């Protein structure tokens, strides 16, 4: 591979280690490296997931982020911390602001609440080598927030991310680097399931083709991969050679919204009557977001998944003549789809609604018998109240029934309590 044909950048991928647990430790004045602390989604539910465990808890008891609350051992030294997503988002935002001391905001790409990329091209005269910059960034995060981090360095975002996942987390100083010329030595021996972007399903497909390591993938026919997997196969091939042409700058550019959707995985089986209140709350939230952006949509999607195989899961859509962001109009279409495709007697565990085929929300000609204008004014008034006093300041009566979800969701961020 002639790497002279491909762009080279200085990209850092930064991961805050045991982020949720570290934040909870710092709130309690504990050392994140030595404290035994578990962040639990909801301590009132024995089956709740352990969202994060401190490094010491992972090492001593083998607790991971897929463990359940009831699996925690009887150890009086373990601190149970309820998840506070608002705190984690606040700290994440402050860390992002700290990164602006090193680079402009256009050079920052936030990947998740605890992970981000920095493009540090041209900073050597100010701070020294790329490795020195990584050390300064890592030190600044620890000094200001008490949170340890690991950093991968690469010619692009893919290399920085993969070397961070595979090598930096095992490195004594938490920093590792992989340039184009090091791909064969550092990455090719790695089994493909450990490579970012390759899930279990793709692993199965590749293994059946005789591809076990990233090196196997690099030596496989590019045309065969593209024929089998389309554009994804072509991307897999280039990634195996360490090539990633995705932009490393200007990530704060706003992309066009394709749709407004809302979904939920229910904590128990829902009946046909209960799901009606749930769908109304979901439509309410999707339309509220559309109204906020002055957008309306012509196509409404409904997806339902059942608890067992009694019913066949379905995802259907229907288009309407006049674009809408009215909750009741969207809900009426969802109920039409539900009544048409729902399997009687089947228990429901997942539901989602989406408003797509978007256009600007402009005035439409109304008939004398159309009450759209009145509903629009009512929606705007409700939106204003919720924006000022909170999402649960005013709710529909159905939200207080056994099927309603708005009251509980209004107290959460990212599916967990603030």
Automatic annotation (TrEMBL):
Pfam families: IMS, IMS_C, IMS_HHH_1. Residues 11-199 form the UmuC domain. InterPro entries: DNA/RNA_pol_sf, DNA_pol_Y-fam_lit_finger_sf, DNA_pol_Y-fam_little_finger, DNA_polymerase-Y, IMS_HHH_1, Rev_trsase/Diguanyl_cyclase, UmuC. CDD domains: PolY_Pol_V_umuC. PROSITE patterns: UMUC (PS50173). Belongs to the DNA polymerase type-Y family. This is DNA polymerase V. It comes from Alkalibacillus salilacus.
